[in-house]
Specification:
The protein has no helices and 11 strands. By secondary structure, the protein is an all-beta fold.
């Protein structure tokens, strides 16, 4: 049985930093690409950053490029999102996701429960 547990969210002032993490239990991390999505108040859930199964091809949406860093520790089945220079518009519920990319895992998608990040003075 796959379990996904997010941690590290909370409140931070504008310009501050926060790192959130996500542990996937029950999957082989190297067989999954992983990503962080977020859903702000009154908005749809959108992709923030993604990383390949090998952990060597990060991708960021323009609004977080240069401020956020996604990383993956496949040995620990853990996904991280380091967020620097946070802005009020980064306030959202952040969701981690793992999507299977191999022949045996393709079609498998697992989501975290979501974690609140609030940026305000």
């Amino acid at each position: 049985q796959v379990q996904v547990v997010e941690s590290g969210g909370g409140w931070v002032q504008p310009g501050g930093s926060l790192t959130i993490s996500c542990v996937f239990s029950g999957i082989y991390g190297s067989s999954y690409s992983m990503s962080w999505d977020r859903q702000g108040p009154g908005k749809e859930r959108d992709l923030v950053a993604s990383v390949s199964a090998g952990g060597d091809l990060p991708h960021y949406v323009d609004v977080v490029e240069g401020r956020f860093t996604i990383s993956k520790d496949s040995a620990k089945n853990t996904l991280y999102l380091q967020m620097n220079n946070l802005k009020p518009e980064d306030t959202a519920v952040y969701y981690c996701k793992a999507a299977g990319v191999t022949r045996s895992t393709r079609g498998n998608t697992y989501w975290g429960q979501g974690i609140q990040v609030t940026v305000s003075a």
